[in-house]
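Good morning C.,

I know you're traveling, so I'll keep this short. The sequence:
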Amino acid sequence: HVLEYRRLLENRRKSPDSAPADLSDMPLPKMSVLLMVQIDSKVSGVMFTRNPVSGASNEAVIEAVYGQGEGLVSGELTPDRYVYNRIQKTEVSRDISELKTHKFQLSNSFTGTDKVDISDSSLWAMPALTQDQILNLIDHGNRLNQYYGHAQDIEWCIDSSDTIYLLQTRHITSAGDAGVGAHMESGSSRPAAFLPPGPGAWAFDNTHFAKPTTKHIAKCYEKVMAPGGVYSFSKSLERVGVGLDGIENRFVNGFMYGQPHLISDPNELMRRGGICYEFWEKKLYLKFLEEFDNEWKPQRIREHEDFLDKFIDTQLDFSLETNEGLVELAKTAYSYAFKCYLHHHDFTGPAVICTGDLVAQVTKWSGCSVLEALELFDNASPESRGVLNYHDPIVKRLHDALREYPQSVEALKMLNEDEDADSLEVLELLIASPNPGVQSAMKDFIRKFGYRLTNGYDLCCFTNMETPEFMLRALLTGLEDDGTKEKQQEAKYHAHVADIRNRVPEELRTQFDTVLDESRKLYRMRDERGLFSDLTGVGLARTLLLKVGKVLETRMVLRSADLLAFASEEEAEALIKGSKDAVSNVELENRLHYYNVCDGSTAPRTLGAPLGPPPAPPSDLPPFVMRSIAAMQACLGHVFTGEDAGSDFDTIRGVAASRGVIQGRACLIRDPSDLCLVEQNDILVTYSTSAAFNSILPLLSGIVADFGGTLSHSAIIARESGIPAVVGCLSAMERIQTGMIIQVNGEKGEIRIIDSKNIKVDPGKVRKAQSSSLSKDVSGVLRQYSSITGM
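The tokens, ready to paste straight into the viewer:
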């Protein structure tokens, strides 16, 4: 077609009957070829005129790599990321990649691009863009955004003359699938927008999952809490007769959004009403507690012990395993984690409803606040304190052994006295202690507490064995405790009970005594579900995955052992078998990076239709059904984050969670690597906590959490520890910096910023935090432990 058109043009020019410039009667070509100059890019990248992670329309996100853009689009190169307020043209954040060791450049043979090394090492960690280039790109992006009237996804490049070329632009429309890494568009490293995963309203669970999840836990939790009576959560709700069938969970860009499913079938509601009657009238909850203590807990302990003996405390050399053997080990880890997630919810119904029942009943009888009602649970869950539960026989035995061998106590004191002390080395000293009593007690101590997760529920979360500093500091706190604080808390509790009881009408006091006694008995079930299931079991599964990952790292399949936790079970199998379409190291590193830099503050609290209040129950329901409804609403209404309480210039407001007023140094914990920044008497500022955070409690004088309500874990551990707390703040992590002096008022639910200028941070600890961003290689400690224990 091109040659034919050239021939027609040439004939026209030669024809004496037509003007050379008149082409009006020329036939249109059927096809044309566009000839373009290939740009030899110095820097390439993408720009979004709306933040695709947070959805902020006033923010532009720019990603940049050296050379051609192929490495960014394919995910083979880790880009720099710049976030700017595109209206004010001010920097919000930047994340400069230190891995820019390669680039793609035009091939000398004109056959495409070649991936080449960047020989100048000074460029590896240097920003790929200058400030002027960033601002020029933002100007172009703003014009495109205005022209199209919609947020744009723009591809661009800059050549050696610093000329900016806009290669392509399109609307931002994509959304992710489940799990970390799902923030990326298919075949790309670009983050996707937050779009509803289905019709209706979807609420973000920032209380339990403040960080993006791995693909494995996303797959598990879409099943674990699903409606239909198949899995444990739905079954546990059925056991107490409530009208909630389950929660449909979907994951958007790695964050969990849920949609409750209420039962509407009249026959099923009638059947559940009968269960409600038996639950309260026959006190089935006491039978459930007996089952929990005599069957469920012993079974979980036996399963963990068996897993430890077979896969962790073993002399087996995993490096000798075939690929098929490694696949089976990885599958064992993934399936054990899923099993533990299921068991976590076996008793969710009884644990939740009995706690909510006391809150609903006592606030109605006495007129007390929700916080005052919750303080009736103080000291009711000693297992929640973990290593700080001095009545635990395993903890007590180790305390006794350490006191009899002062050299071990001196080793522990190194953690407080020497900022360069390595907690892994201290742990190794205790494990290898020449004192048989310390050795034996340490073995039992590690088997119970060593593999618990420290900061969440996911396979990518660290265990106490990987970051033992706070577990060991808690041990030292116990050695120095004389029991005075516990006696004071006990006396305070009894005085509080007497006060609330006096406010209850005399004719209801016997009923108050019964409800209080029975609710306190079941209260510990709420935390123990996790402590004896996933907080320990997933830690064991992670430890096994790290062992498999270490072999893959040695065989140069993985760059780092801990990347395996970010692969799904199917991806891990393909990776181990060496499949050609196996997930790449770059992809797994991108997921790790996303996990480290993103948190719940970037995710919208709701997606889809507006989230309205739960429907009001009919007024003619039987009293026992109304009791269950009130109990569930009281509990669930105080677990999750409430509405924004409204903050001003120097005061942040949230939910009053634990009474008292404290002023001190703030310490922000965004991820596990920040834990080493915590100092004695710090006020912890974080997104949310799990039972795994208990190991740092001895150091804290107060807690501030952006997410959660008065029945969230952050609130519970604060009340158990007798320290002030404010939760559900929403903006504390954004406004407070480590080193600021703040005042926490746990009764008013307020945090005041006292001194934001004279910020004091230990540079040594910051360096330590930066060097702790990946999991520690604890293989040496594990070998030492195995040889001592004879396993």
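Safe travels,
E.
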